[in-house]
Design a protein that fits this description.
Blueprint: H1 3-21, E1 31-32, H2 39-54, E2 61-66, E3 76-79, E4 82-84, E5 86-89, E6 92-95, E7 101-102, E8 106-112, E9 121-127, E10 135-142, H3 150-153, E11 157-159
Parallel strand pairs: 1-3, 9-11
Antiparallel strand pairs: 2-8, 3-8, 4-7, 4-11, 5-6, 9-10
């Protein structure tokens, strides 16, 4: 990355932090995960907030990522997600030619774990950026039934954008 690109990225990160710092409540605020200096800490904080608010044990919580939905007032909104190797259509992953697709804002919810069998779901990694060196977390997302094992073989993933 050139110095000018690095400085522009830093300015964008600082702008987001300045905006967030002035808020009393982060519910319904779009957060660019890739713009946080420690996005893992933000994810942990959302989990702890829900556990405290609902008086649930941390060990019983599972993350749900609702792609391109922001209708839950208790959820945490993330922006800047990019899906690689697929697109999002009719509430499921549909394989594409590998071209990255920027997603609309999505929401993170924490729910109590269930051991239900999610047959047409695949566990996808969510990387910090496009170089895929830092996995932030994984999420279970539904996929088109015809995709089957191709979701894993094509290395479909989400990134937090640059």
């Amino acid at each position: 990355m050139a110095v000018s690109g690095w400085v522009a990225n830093l300015a964008r990160r600082l702008s987001q932090l300045d905006h967030i710092a002035g808020l009393d409540n982060l519910n319904n605020v779009e957060i660019w995960l890739g713009g946080l200096f420690f996005p893992e800490a933000y994810i942990t904080a959302t989990r702890q907030t829900v556990a405290h608010r609902k008086k649930w044990s941390l060990e019983t919580l599972s993350m749900r990522l609702d792609i391109e939905r922001v209708n839950d007032p208790t959820a945490f909104i993330v922006d800047g997600l990019v899906i690689e190797g697929a697109t999002w259509s009719s509430d499921k992953l549909v394989l594409n030619n590998g071209e990255p697709v920027r997603l609309n804002p999505s929401q993170i919810r924490w729910v109590q774990s269930d051991d239900s069998n999610n047959e047409n779901f695949d566990n996808l990694p969510v990387y910090l950026n496009g170089d895929r060196s830092d996995v932030l977390f994984t999420v279970d997302l539904p996929f088109e039934s015809s995709a089957g094992s191709l979701v894993s073989m094509r290395a479909v993933c989400l990134t937090c954008g640059d």
